Amino acid sequence: MVAIVQCWDHEADFLRQKEDLYALRRWDWNWSFTRPRAPWAKGRSRRLLLIAARDDDGQMYVTHVGKSVRGKAAKDQDQQLTVSLVFRLAEPLRLTELLAVLAPVQHRRLAEQGHQTDGVSKALRDGLLRLRPAATEAVKLIEGAVAPWTFGENRAAQEVALQRDATLGAARMAGFDATELAEWDPPAGELDVDRPPPTFLALAGGRARPALEDHLIARDAETMLGWLSTETSDVAWREFREHGRTLLVANANRTPAETLLGCDIVYYNVTRESLVLVQYKKLDAARKGFYYPNSDRKFGEELRRMEALDRYAARIAGEEGEQRLDPSPSWVKLCHPQSTMRHTNEMIHGMYFSRRQFEALRRDARLRDGRGGAVRFGYQNVPGYLDNTLFSRLVESGQIGTSGTSTELVRQQVIRTFRGQRNLVLAALSDDTLPQAERTRRRRGGG
Question: Residue 298: what pLDDT?
Answer without folding.
Answer: 84
